[in-house]
């Protein structure tokens, strides 16, 4: 396979998952990359971007009709909606439209990689059996991750290409304007707390402060995604991908606060979506004072922060299947957060 041309089609190329995946593919040196997103992007080196509306089957067919060289599809696109049921039609529809458009023209298609998450196990609904395993029993729908995998399994039957499904925990890395970026939520929340002269209080449910959690570094996930797509042992398999360590916010929160030179105070339950709703004028003042580069809209993912900080139960999955199949990478979660904060400061996203 290493002697054959490898062309990746990355859907959701501007997100925290897709963007880090594009960077990793480029770093490997033997991939050409085509990034798909609504707004497109600037071409560079072996990466070119296509602006496409995957919700529109006609636009998908028109924009992808010439991509005959694609060998691997990496699907990391996501459309946010307010309810679990409303998430299903657009997120399943985008995957169906992409496969309908690319499968007939990419005659050398080898693999379709699907990005999922712990919602497959019902993590979004409440306490679920942990550590979750890839062969755990399903749960009552709606759940678009499950529907997407069911579609790929049906579509792949009798075909030469294979699929894989990656199931990370909360993914952390650099991306702006992303609805699910916890590291940016914490960094901006801490920066505003410091500007206001208040301690960094954990804003979640009381039980969330002491529950066991794990995270998934976006760079680690990118490595796992390419591994699962290119190792024949992983054909038609799903894998939990996490950093490999566990933590409680009660232990990690003071260490994150220390990076910002902030004191901590006892947790105080509050909705970030509510208390941060009036902070745009302050953020604009901070942009002016510190020369920051990002708008408030680009760094605001407060609804997602409320979602994660509301988990007053353990959210962990068994990552041993990936290790048994040959993936042995790991990341220290505390070092991950601090490295992302360093990067955000270097990029002038936070002071």
From TrEMBL:
<dbReference type="Pfam" id="PF22917">
    <property type="entry name" value="PRISE"/>
</dbReference>
<dbReference type="InterPro" id="IPR036291">
    <property type="entry name" value="NAD(P)-bd_dom_sf"/>
</dbReference>
<protein>
    <submittedName>
        <fullName>Nucleoside-diphosphate-sugar epimerase</fullName>
    </submittedName>
</protein>
<dbReference type="InterPro" id="IPR055222">
    <property type="entry name" value="PRISE-like_Rossmann-fold"/>
</dbReference>
<feature type="domain" description="PRISE-like Rossmann-fold">
    <location>
        <begin position="59"/>
        <end position="351"/>
    </location>
</feature>
């Amino acid at each position: 396979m290493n002697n054959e041309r490898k062309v990746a089609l990355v859907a959701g190329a501007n997100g925290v998952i897709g963007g880090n995946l594009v960077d990793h593919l480029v770093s490997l040196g033997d991939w050409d990359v085509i990034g798909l997103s609504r707004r497109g992007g600037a071409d560079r080196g072996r990466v070119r971007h296509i602006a496409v509306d995957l919700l529109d089957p006609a636009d998908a067919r028109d924009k992808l009709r010439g991509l005959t060289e694609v060998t691997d599809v990496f699907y990391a696109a996501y459309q946010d909606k307010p309810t679990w049921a409303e998430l299903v039609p657009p997120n399943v529809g985008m995957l169906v439209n992409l496969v309908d458009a690319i499968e007939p023209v990419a005659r050398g298609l080898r693999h379709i990689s699907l990005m999922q998450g712990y919602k497959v196990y019902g993590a979004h609904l409440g306490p679920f059996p942990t550590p979750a395993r890839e062969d755990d029993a399903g749960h009552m729908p709606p759940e678009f991750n499950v529907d997407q995998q069911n579609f790929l399994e049906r579509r792949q039957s009798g075909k030469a290409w294979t699929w894989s499904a990656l199931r990370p925990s909360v993914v952390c890395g650099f991306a702006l304007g992303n609805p699910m970026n916890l590291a940016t939520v914490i960094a901006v929340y801490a920066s505003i707390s410091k500007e206001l002269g208040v301690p960094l209080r954990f804003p979640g449910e009381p039980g969330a402060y002491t529950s066991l959690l794990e995270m998934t570094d976006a760079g680690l996930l990118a490595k796992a995604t390419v591994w699962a797509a290119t190792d024949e042992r992983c054909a038609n398999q799903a894998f939990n991908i996490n950093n490999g360590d566990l933590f409680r916010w009660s232990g990690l929160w003071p260490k994150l606060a220390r990076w910002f030179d902030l004191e901590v105070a006892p947790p105080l339950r509050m909705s970030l979506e509510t208390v941060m709703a009036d902070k745009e004028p302050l953020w604009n003042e901070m942009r002016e004072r510190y020369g920051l580069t990002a708008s408030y809209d680009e760094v605001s993912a407060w609804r997602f922060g409320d979602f994660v900080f509301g988990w007053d139960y353990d959210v962990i999955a068994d990552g041993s299947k990936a290790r048994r199949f040959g993936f042995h990478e790991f990341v220290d979660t505390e070092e991950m957060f601090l490295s992302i904060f360093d990067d955000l400061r270097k990029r002038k996203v936070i002071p």
